[in-house]
# Entry
Amino acid sequence: MERLFSFLFFLVLTVTAQNVPSNHKPTENSVGSGRILNYSPSSGQDQNTDVKIEDTYSNPSIDRRYQDTAPSNYNLDPGPVEQDKYGYEFKYHDFDQMTRFLRETTAKYPSLTALYSIGKSVQGRDLWVMVVSSSPYEHMIGKPDVKYIGNIHGNEAVSRELLLQLIYYLVTSYSTDSYAQWLLDNTRIHIMPSMNPDGFEVSKEGQCDTGPGRYNARGYDLNRNFPDYFKQNNKRMQPEAEAVKEWVSKIQFVLSGSLHGGALVASYPFDNTPNSRICKSSALCSLFQNYASSPSLTPDDDVFKHLSLIYSTNHAKMSKGVACKTSKGFLKGITNGAAWYPLTGGMQDFNYIWHGCMEVTLEVSCCKYPPAKELPRYWEDNKVALIKFLSEAHRGVHGFVMDEHGNPVEKASLKIKTRDVGFQTTKYGEFWRILLPGVYKMEVYADGFVPKEVEFMVVNEHPTLLNVTLHPSQYGAYYPKPVLLPSISIMQVQKPRPVYNVTGDFAFPQD
# Structure
């Protein structure tokens, strides 16, 4: 084992200088056979396969194609996608049609895709996830996992179709688009087109602002259903949200985007704030936006703003601050979530605080469920942004935590000094953190080891590779562990929040 990991670390240090062959394409034998994984969190068992979702981290292969910086001379936008590969067309896919398309994709491209389910909706529909990567069935050491989730609100249908089209584009462009090839060779992309398939089935095409389908089959808003750091969330946990919680606890995602509709903006954490009151109606929310827009900033505010700008500036319209009928325009197309309107139980705050995953909410269309004939335009507006956003997982620092014998240290706790939101190592000692250029210090803690602080530099051109060696502590020695959640003292509270009365009216408190 010691020799294996010594070789792997040497390999990671050396292969980054190699170029990805332009004509390379993985073979079916090298990465899998196109099986469909159907994982049930409740039972812990798979159906129709002997592979569990957590086993995608087992038996890692050595990927000599690993390259951690994107090619500089690629053409990301080669023109319209040909619709002749295996019958894809721009339309709204109901659940059966979506399932058929995903299965056809993994059958057509078994060396680039793997399909699995993380659970079931209230009405028993699978929560499908498609992995798109040149290593879809197994984790490659040093290669980050990223994800997109769409259709968390069932009537926000554009997000669902954008993600299906993204899958299609990535697999059909792998052999012709150098950027798509680089991204799939160096990243495992998990795409969930619909987190709320039940809601979608009852939503109505042409309903831009309201209409049925926002909630799940039990009437719950799934983007208010996650644990919340600022306030106790007493809402009954729904199976769709529970499945996502289980999912992100098994795979260490580095970067995530949650796609919504109804506005054109990239919204970043925090969504909640220590002293917020949540508006109860759309009219109150509108007033709240105008009179109580105070940001609630994370310790990684610079990174979140950067990620949001990556999406908005690569979108055809978002960075122009385009206003929608029911939503104001936003400067440069980005906003802090709480500054827009605060909410309790949001998914992006949960991803960030509980799992160290940088998630941004991406509002990709003014109309939530526009006519299907408009879908090609929405794809062209979002295509480059969707791809460029994922590449940001290769920014900052990544590396390994080992003991003095070269063995990986699993579940070591890490945090960047002055940024009190932590992250952990994988079972292979890997870690990733998206950071902007600068000099940083990282604190590393693990049971049975002496804590360590290391200083490193991040540059813009490529991610920094940082290997950390820990030494065993003396018997009985005690070292305090880091605080993995932000303390309330770091939250910025700049403006008094409104006080609500029993009728739902509000006014600002008087000093």
User: Anything to note?
Assistant: The longest helix spans residues 375-391. The chain has a mean pLDDT of 81.
